Amino acid sequence: GNSVTQMEGPVTLSEEAFLTINCTYTATGYPSLFWYVQYPGEGLQLLLKATKADDKGSNKGFEATYRKETTSFHLEKGSVQVSDSAVYFCRRYGGSQGNLIFGKGTKLSVKP
Amino acid sequence: GAVVSQHPSRVICKSGTSVKIECRSLDFQATTMFWYRQFPKQSLMLMATSNEGSKATYEQGVEKDKFLINHASLTLSTLTVTSAHPEDSSFYICSARDPRAGGWDFEQFFGPGTRLTVL
Questions:
Q1: Interface of B with A (CB under 8 A)
Q2: Average pLDDT over every residue of A37-62
Q3: How high is the pLDDT of residue A30?
Q4: Is the separation of the CB atoms in A21 and A110 below 8 Å?
Q5: B12-25: per-residue pLDDT in tens?
Q6: How many Å apart are CA A30 and CA A51, to the nearest integer?
Q7: Of B43, B46, B109, the CB nearest to A89
Q8: How many beta carbons lie within 10 A of that of residue A57, not counting itself?
């Protein structure tokens, strides 16, 4: 079935370091892809999205490019801040039933 | 953007009691809402899809008699955990589909979640 595979955490970085969180998806159909962020004790917030191949989603310094050739949607940020500490979820949506599929989440901790 | 609220944010109850969690879309009418469960350090698991005015559609393995879902209006869906037990302790999150979002039916907005602890 359809799935999303996300790199396991936790990821610990120093402030201003470069961040990459990998996400790959099953290629069935033409899914839309999303990254969500969950701050401690809160619900999910949409961070960015891409609806077709080669689209780049961006928000708050984060970017992710929908790459069909590698079935990937890796999340990147050039310089992380302490306030970016959260859990990040990759999500796949597509198909007749919707397929509301989330990755397992990657916890990011940024140290000052 | 669209706002979804949940109430309560935290609830502690005794084993055997029932707990109701509300999910409201504050500035839009949501014909479809979703209920998720999140275990510690794990992803969200879709429990059910709630459609206004009709029965909820439950995912495989979710007990419909234990997790009662009611979507009586376009802005409110409720999840009732009946005869709660400690293993039901979890973080429950709802989301709502905003039909105004350019026709994309994947556009969901999430509530802040409800932490349920069953003693």
A1: 6, 34, 41-44, 46, 93, 95, 104-106, 108-113, 115
A2: 90
A3: 77
A4: no
A5: 999 999 999 999 99
A6: 8
A7: B43
A8: 20
